[in-house]
Structures are given as structure tokens and as C-alpha cells.
Amino acid sequence: MAGEGQAVWPGRSYPLGATWDGEGVNFALFSEHADKVELCLFDARGRREIERIDMRWQTDQVWHCYLPEARPGQLYGYRVHGPYDPTQGHRFNPHKLLLDPYAKDIHGNVRWNDALFGYTVGDPEQDMRMDTRDSAAGMPKSRVVDHGFPWGDDRPLRTPWHKTVIYELHVKGFTIRHPDVPRRHRGTYAGLINERVIEYLKDLGVTAVELMPVHSFINDRNLAEQGLSNYWGYNTIGFFAPHAGYSASGEIGEFKTMVKRLHSNGIEVILDVVYNHTAEGSHLGPTLSFRGIDNSAYYRLTADRRYCMDYTGCGNTLNTMHPRVLQLIMDSLRYWVQEMHVDGFRFDLAASLARESHSVNHFSAFLNMIHQDPVLSRVKLIAEPWDLGEGGFQVGNFPVGWTEWNSRYRDTFRAYWKGEGGVIGELGYRLTGSSDLYAFSGRRPYASINFITCHDGFTLYDLVSYNDKHNLANGEDNRDGDNNNLSWNCGDEGPTRNLHVRRLRAQQQRNFLTSLLLSQGVPMIAAGDEMCRTQQGNNNAYCQDNELSWVNWDIDGHAVELHGFVRQLIRLRKQHPVFHRRHFFQGRRIKGANIKDIVWVSPTGEEMTDEQWTHSYARSLGLLLQGDAIEEQDSRGRPISDETFLLLLNAHYQTVNFTLPKQIRIARWSVELDTTFGNGKRDDSRFFHSGEIYPLKARSTVLLRLLRSN
Q1: How would residue 2 be classed by pLDDT, with cut points 50, 70 and 90?
Q2: Most Cβ neighbours (<10 Å): which of 257, 368, 391, 654?
Q3: Could you give the CA distance from residue 573 to residue 514 in angstroms, rounded to a whole number?
Q4: H or E stretch at 689
């Protein structure tokens, strides 16, 4: 039934969502099992429902209408009628105002109260009795947008994977304490493109920022009641709308301006996206959007249809076996590429998206659709290759075209620099691009996204400062967070005045960062690790929207020194193709040369034998990278060559007298980097010769460059 004075036309079933065409707005909503759908219009503040319109037209399970008088800025929501029968998977409740799954902008915040739940909270039968209170007062509202924006000549940067250096950051946490960002812009998209912030990113040398979730998300009720919040943002409610809490202006154009400005400074934008679950949680969660629109279509349900299947640890799992859910994900991804100009995505718990029936299917509809899509197949695709379900650990198993967060890289280097034995065999694979995981499927070294730390877990500083997690601030009696961190506090737990411990911690940070930035594959740095950011031992700071999580820009001399060290490493990596090869090493003699493209060297200066790789006591080895044996070509077909380097690693607690390799008989080596020195530079400028002993200090990394050879 149309409201007073509002013209209502049939409209179209495509595109889904609210679409302004310059004359009016088309509204289209999918619901397979609904009996009736009402479009609710609200005043400019979203507090008063001014009109309710019966969407009488339905085409292919899409309810639609067209309002010729509606304009951008109009706030709206839906009420969807149908059976309330949890035993059959149906949870329709027209008393609950629902967000549009395709909303491009969301106005307001959730104001928690029992009316937001589709069932009567506290009822002895739990979710079996429908709640009849109106939820509109506590609900945010969807908002119609005008997509016009002056993009000018902005184009995708398409930085090659092998030249990519990723910097993972939180939009709010990165600038909220930055002294040079105006207060009104701190913690926002506008703050991220402040001139000083841009200068910092460019000077550091990163080529891409990976933004933690910026899709519209909400705070969980239980966190809000404890005075905490879902700081990380892995609690999505709107897959098309930028999170309004990060906007200084309240306009989606601010996000677009951020992307455009980063592009103009040579920095790509990768989004961390959460399509595996939504903020509605389990069957006892609120009814905010998908659950009330068509629960049985949007969510994977158990055999008895009453409960949500949970492969994510968040109460529900989106049903990627349903074509409309797949369409939602694909439409969302294309929107962010085509309308918002982002350069790629990191998929949270990506294994859950590839599940069909129960198991992970490497030929799933989701993966196949991405692969054949002319838009999405060309952007950067990063999988977090696991979920929490049976068989969910899928590192190395995603198809061609995908890269992966390589947790085996993280764990191997953590174990090695902690001093554990028996890991150098796997270390060899991780240093050289993880060919054991990716070569068999036709992928390249850059399929491996290498990282030591990320948002989830210890920061780098905490990794070398704490043996145990310290998560009491999260309100769960320290039960949350991973117990297996492979961390080592270097002798004291947490803050210490012991100068020896502090120096060792600084050296261990340099070791980790050197390993990361000189390994084959794509390095990812967690924001703040280059300036000793600490979370005081909290390894699960997802709910800490405060100084515990925010980047502290008031850094001391040690942090300044580490920052300079990381800048030096990134420049070294960029300048030398031998550290970012596009193909795996051959490990054989190159035609016309008397040396292999890679040689593993033992402390005796000889090439390592098969037996030496298995020695449990081995903690020191060398890697000879022959710059003349890269056997690759540049974009114009010209051969790529480089200088020759020798990388020495020693995780032992004492100095190892390392004999420089004898394969190059007459050679002179300069020391490019030594992690026993704060800035990576030796106090002297002496050279070392083939067959000479280099005193490789305890727990250190050294990089030498070949100056002359026969």
C-alpha cells in the first residue's frame, strides 16, 4: 500500500539495492521465501518512519519498486513478512526493521536493546517465540547514494606481485595518535592521506596498504555492555558500505578520495574482507538484515534447519552454495573494484567460502566464479587459507591466481629465531618462496604472502618480549587468544631495565625483519612493527579500541633506529631482483656457468649435504644467491641480472666461525648488513675473502655482497 502522495512505479528487479538513476530511485530486494516486503522511508535523521510502501512487484524472487520522487540521501529500511518457524529455518519478523544487504551507505549505529532480536529474549523456549516489539528506534538505516565522483585519470596501479611490499594497518589505529594529523581527521580515511602520513608510507617504501575491515560493521552487544568494542571490525553488516565510523565527513566520497590520493603516490589499496559470516551471529543473535530477509537462503543451516553451521567461530557461515549469496559476494567485490577503485582483497577465513556440502572444494563455485570473472581475476587476491571447520587448514591448496597468507612461513621463522632445532630443512623452503607448497600447482614464489606478525597475535616487539599472552584486559580471564605463539622474551617477561635483554630484543627484531624482507615471496609488515609497537603482551586485542592497540608516534631512539633499518631493508629488496625473483630457484648449474643459481652453504664453507639438512642441532647456514643466474627477463624481454649475495643466519646462542664459501675461489666480500649492529652497519669497513672465517655472532643475520671474483 503506497503512502500519502508518494508515486510508486513497478521498477526493475536489477540491480539489487537502491539505485539512483538521475530521476528517481529503484529499490530491489531478494527474498526467496517471503510473503510480503515493505519499504520503509525515514526522515533525514532516521528517527521517524514517514512512509511505508508495499513492494507489490516480484520478479525471480526479487521484490522491487521505483520511486520517481526519491533522491540521494533518502534513509530507508525493509520489513519482510513470512513464516516465523525456526525449525524450518525461517525467521521472518515484520516488526524488525532490516538493513538492505546492498546498501551503499549506512547511517547511524546499533543501539542495543532486546527489541533488536527476532525472538523474545529470556524466554524458556529460547528462540521459538517471535518478539513483536518494533526495532526501528535502535537500528541504523540504509541510505541512497549518488555515485558521482571526479576520479579523473585514476587507474589501477597493477604493481607486479614480485615487486609488492604490503603494510597491514588499521584505519583508525594508524592515525588516531598522529600529532601532525588534525584532530578532526585522526582515525579516519581523511587522516590516512594526510601529507605527513603519505610521506611516511612512501619513505618507508611500502607499495600497498592492506586495510583491516572497512566494510560497515557493528559492535557486539556483549562487548558494548563491558565497555569494549569490536575494534578489528570482523563483524560485517554491510558488504557495500564503507564503515561510517572511519569517516570524518560522513560522505562515501571521503573513501574514494583516500584511494585516489594513495594511488597518485604509488600505493595500492587492498581490503581485508569478511564474507564468511555476518554480525548477526548464531541463532540467538539479533535480526538486523540477512536473518530477517531470508535466513534459510543466506546462512548455512544444520540438517534440522534450526541452527547455523559455524565454520568461522562467529556463530554463522554465509551460504555460498546459494546462487544469490554468491551474487551478493561477487557484486560486492566488483563494486569495490569498479566504483571504489581498490586494487585487491584479502579474504578472511577464505576456506569457508570454498566449502560445498561440508568439505573445502578447490573447484567450488566461488573459486570458479572469481577465476573467470573479467574484473576480479585481474586484481590482487589473497586468501587466509583456513577456517575453523574440519579440514579447514588449506595452506598451499588455493588455485592459480591466488596468493595466500603463509602461516608455515610465520611459524618456521618464529621457531628458528627462538632457537629451536630441527627446522632448517623447512627454513630453506620458506626462505626461497615455499616451492613445496606452490610449485606443483603452477604458482610462483609470490603466491606466498610472508609474514612474521599481523593484527592477530603478538606485535613484533611483544614476540621478543613475552613468553605468555597477557589478555586480562579483554575480560575473559586470559582464556582467549592463542597459547602457542612460538615467542621468546629473551630472558625477562615484559618491560625490563636489563640492558642485555633489551639489546637482544632489538637484535631479534632485526633478525625477523631481515628474514622477512630478504625472503622470496611477498613480504607483509604489520603497521608499527618498524617502530617497536607494543600491546603489552596482549595477543588478541580485537576489542581494545584504545592506546593498547593504536600506533604510538611518540617513539624513542630504539624505535627510530629500527625504522631506519627497515627502510634500508626495503630499499635493498627493491634494488636487487635476486631478492624478489618471479620464478623458483632451479638449484642446478646454469648453462654456460660454473655455479648454481642458489647454493646452500654450511659453516665449513662447503655446500650442504642432504644429511646436514636433517641435523637437529643445526642452527646456522648460508644462502649464496648468484645474481648472474637469475634466468629471467624484464617486460621488454631483456635478461635480468644482479649482484651476487651471501646471506648468513645463526640462531645459535654462541658465535659460529663461518667459513666464506669456497665455490667462488677468488672473491672479496663487503658486509652490507649485520643485525648485531643497531643500524645494520659494521663499525669497520673491512672486506672478507673466499675461505676466510666470518665470526657470525650469536643470534644474528649477515648479508655480504660479492665485489670481485674469477
Answers
A1: very low
A2: 257
A3: 10
A4: strand 687-689
> Which band of pLDDT confidence, cut at 50, 70 and 90, is reported for residue 708?
low
Amino acid found at 370 = I
Domain count, the chain: 3
List active site positions.
348, 384
Name which residue leads in pLDDT, 629 or 653.
653
CATH number at residue 601: 2.60.40.1180
Query: Measuring CA to CA, how many Å separate 231 from each of 272, 345, 426?
Result: 14, 20, 35
Looking at residue 50, its amino acid is: I
Phi, psi of 585 (to 5 degrees): -60, 150
Instruction: Please check whether residue 539 lies inside any domain of the structure.
Output: no
Rounded distance between C-alpha atoms, residue 574 and residue 577, angstroms:
7
Beta strands 344-347; 268-273: pairing state? parallel
Chain segment 329-363, per-residue pLDDT in tens:
999 999 999 999 999 999 999 999 999 888 998 88
Neighbours of 589 (CB within 10 A): 12
The pLDDT mean for the chain works out to: 95
492 with 638, same domain? no
pTM metric for this prediction: 0.97
Domain boundaries, position 89: 17-143
122 and 184 both lie in a single domain: no
Contacts of 98 (CB under 8 A, 6+ apart): 77, 78, 79, 80, 287, 288, 289, 292, 293
Cα torsion through 664, 666, 668, 669, rounded to 10: 20
